[in-house]
Amino acid sequence: MNRCSRLLSAFGHAFAGLFHAFRTQRNIPIHLTIAAGVMALGLWLDLSRMEWAILALTIGIVLSAELLNSSLETVVDMVSPEYHPMAKRAKDIAAGAVLLTAIVAVVVGLLILGPPLWARLVAALVPPPGSPPMLR
Q1: Does any domain span residue 136?
Q2: Are the CB atoms for 116 and 45 separated by under 8 Å?
Q3: Which of 51, 66, 73, 82 is the catalytic position?
Q4: Per-residue pLDDT tens digits for 42-81
Q5: pTM of the full structure
Q6: Tell me, what CATH number does 110's domain have?
């Protein structure tokens, strides 16, 4: 097998892994739905390229952590089909890593989306100075 064929084969295996995870892992659709909502909000708020880059990296890190967690759980289940406290510990630590990345992603999202969202909400709720008083 030549170098190009090996590279294409490696990409094929990688995409097969992604598709398998997207079909079988229950948390990935949750992460993707939240990511889609963040992207829609980002479009509405007209984010800068730098803000988009930060959000894209953050989303990628969360999804990567979820994929690594899933692969670790698969390996642990393979080598330790019976319950073992160390197998549980490994799974719990990997799940904790996903939780940590998700919490950091929320903080990043609030830092990037919060100020422009707040500005739009305030602008919609507070009349500009000098406007006639609202009827009661």
Answers
A1: no
A2: yes
A3: 66
A4: 999 999 999 999 999 999 999 999 999 999 999 999 999 9
A5: 0.87
A6: 1.10.287.3610
